[in-house]
Amino acid sequence: MANPLVSVIVPIYNLAPCLMRGVTSLMKQDYRNLQVILVDDHSTDDSARLIKAAAARDQRIEPIFLTANCGVSAARNAGLAQARGLYVGFMDGDDWMAPELIAQFVAKLEQGPYDILVSPFFIDDPRPSTVAKSLTRSRPLSRRQFLAGMMAPVGYMRGYLWNKFYRRSIIEAAHLQFDEAVALMEDELFNVQYALAASRFYYLGRPAYHHVVRADSTTQSLGVFAALPQQLAALWRIRGLIKAGYASGAVPEEPVRSER
Asked: Fewer C-beta neighbours within 10 Å, C or N terminus of the chain?
């Protein structure tokens, strides 16, 4: 497929001061065939008005307004339920993308074809970080390599959603959703479940996503020690998923030989 539809899901809660930078970066992508799903999680600031105004200017934007504040997992699930694209990506509402990101991701996913693509990223704190040259070597990955990089406490793969693209067909075939009862590391849980249902993995060493560090993010607000019990519980569950997945024999074979 030459220019498949790409769905980008953006959960939003009280992000009015920084929201439009990210939305504008999506609208200015070199890749044009987009479904941009902006999910307002019942914000109490001006976010909803900004979302409505953006949707009025660009028909590729599809807003969803939740009637109660249900959390980021519920917002992402609402976006997944509305997604129509061959590929699905996520962006945090206060982050932004360089214009070439989606075009690069789609080209490589189609070329493989691959089931999931992961890429290094910039950390804006407040200026963008530099990405080491050693992290810019593109290569196929085995499932174990992907899971190891995702579970690593440091690095540029990690368990985040926003530096990856997914095939919607795999999400739907595996009936994947975000666990709305989990407040932290819900993205790692989703990624593990997806990886166990996928078979073709690729690392694209071209950073183009900008993750913006904010003092009032969920993890920062809880603090390192307060967040630790929830993180450990999530890690325990993740390890159980991986063990059970391989033990069941239901994990698909990997047709792509990874580079060592």
From this structure: C
